[in-house]
Specification:
Number of helices: 18
Order of helices and strands: HHHEEHHEHHHHEHHEEHEHEEHEHHEHH
Distance between the termini: 88 Å
Helix content: 40-55%
Oligomer: single chain
Strand content: 5-15%
Structural class: alpha/beta
Length: 406
């Protein structure tokens, strides 16, 4: 009995002393964790009474974020929550039914904000009217730049699979109306603008029984859905026929939600096109776009696809992170596709001169036959307004031939 007590005391002492010892010697095994937040900074000696009053709370925050073996402790915590409690250890990821994962929010400070926006939970009529006005302004500007422009708003996982959300969230999502639907209704009085907006919710819902619209462990779409939607847009909206067909093979890739749940293996299956067999030259990354210089490094997520035959129409895609998975499939219809993810410009104020140069390069110099602006539904309430400020109409040079090209 005494030996058991001694062992218990020794175990407890080790648990207490191990983090302190590791902190003192700087031992912290494992890769740094990406927590999508700023860790508490080292507290400074208070120089005023107000600072002294807040000192205990600041010290508590700092010690929570900085202690020995923290990376290891968080990974153990995540595994216990995941495998034992069957929950998600991240406030930004919800574990729904059948193991389906839903991305809640782009910032941990506002949990469920993305799902709420996508489904339309809690949105007021004023919110929707303001968003519709911004979309209307953007579409007019886009039409002025290139009349053959389309704004595609992609429904994220919650409106597609509300039945897989936790029960309390499923009921709220089912009884709400997605804002993109309400925006479409407000544009009905302006047919020219209404035809420029595409929100393929019904099409994607109809495909649920035949293909996985979203991978169960991913936020972004992957698999067959981007290919199918690219074909529908190209053929039904643009009236095009394929100039080539891709053969594919399946590759397994790490889920985009992996960084929020370190230590828990999350995977998705992705069809990889056989570019060589189809005669398409792909290029990924900033080096592919010398036309826009250092701005390509800021964008980072950029790609271009060129057909070896060189003859055919050109497509420009200005998107958020949902553009990468679908851009390649449009090269079955266009001889050259430019894809630019402008998230970094939308979320951070940029250099107006560089942005004017960007507009000139992608519109005047590249001279696309079609332009697709593509964003997920969580961005529908703010992205068009911010994009309107990024695109510079004055820097775009038009010629008499541009009228006939569209």
């Amino acid at each position: 009995m005494r030996a058991a007590h001694i062992l218990l005391i020794a175990t407890f002492a080790c648990m207490i002393l191990a983090p302190m010892t590791a902190q003192l010697i700087g031992f912290d095994p494992g890769q740094p964790l990406e927590e999508n937040r700023t860790l508490a900074k080292l507290i400074a000696f208070p120089s005023s009474l107000n600072q002294a009053v807040s000192l205990p709370a600041e010290a508590d925050d700092y010690l929570r974020d900085h202690f020995g073996l923290r990376r290891l402790a968080l990974r153990i915590h995540d595994k216990l929550v995941w495998y034992i409690l069957r929950e998600s250890p991240s406030v930004q990821v919800t574990r729904g039914r059948d193991g389906t994962l839903f991305f809640n929010s782009h910032t941990a400070k506002y949990p469920y904000s993305l799902i709420a926006t996508s489904c339309g939970i809690g949105l007021s009529a004023a919110d929707v009217t303001a968003a519709a006005d911004q979309v209307r302004t953007f579409l007019r500007q886009a039409h002025g730049i290139n009349p053959a422009s389309t704004l595609v708003i992609i429904p994220t996982k919650a409106p597609i699979y509300p039945e897989l959300l936790p029960t309390w969230l499923d009921e709220r999502c089912r009884t709400a109306t997605p804002p993109a639907i309400l925006i479409e209704r407000q544009l009905l009085g302006e047919p020219e603008l209404a035809t420029m907006l595409d929100y393929p919710l019904e099409e994607m819902l109809a495909l649920k029984t035949s293909v996985p619209v979203y991978p169960s462990q991913s936020f972004h779409w992957a698999g067959e859905m981007p290919r199918i939607l690219s074909e529908q847009i190209s053929e039904k909206t643009f009236g095009l026929t394929k100039i080539l067909n891709f053969r594919t093979h399946t590759v397994v890739a790490q889920s985009d939600l992996q960084r929020f749940i370190p230590g828990i293996p999350l995977w998705v299956e992705v069809p990889e096109p056989d570019y060589a067999a189809a005669g398409v030259r792909p290029c990924f990354g900033p080096a592919c776009f010398p036309e826009i210089g250092k701005l390509a490094e800021q964008l980072a997520d950029v790609s271009r696809f060129r057909s070896n035959n060189g003859a055919g129409k050109k497509l420009l895609m200005v998107t958020d992170s949902f553009g990468a998975a679908i851009a390649v499939w449009f090269s079955q219809y266009f001889s050259e596709v430019w894809h630019l993810n402008v998230n970094s410009l939308i979320n951070v104020s940029g250099d107006p001169i560089n942005q004017a140069n960007l507009s000139k390069a992608i519109f005047s110099d590249f001279r696309p036959d079609r332009v697709i602006y593509l964003f997920h539904d969580g961005a529908a309430l703010y992205a068009p307004a911010k994009l309107s400020k990024i695109l510079s109409v004055n820097s775009i040079v038009t010629t008499p031939n541009d009228v006939g090209r569209h």
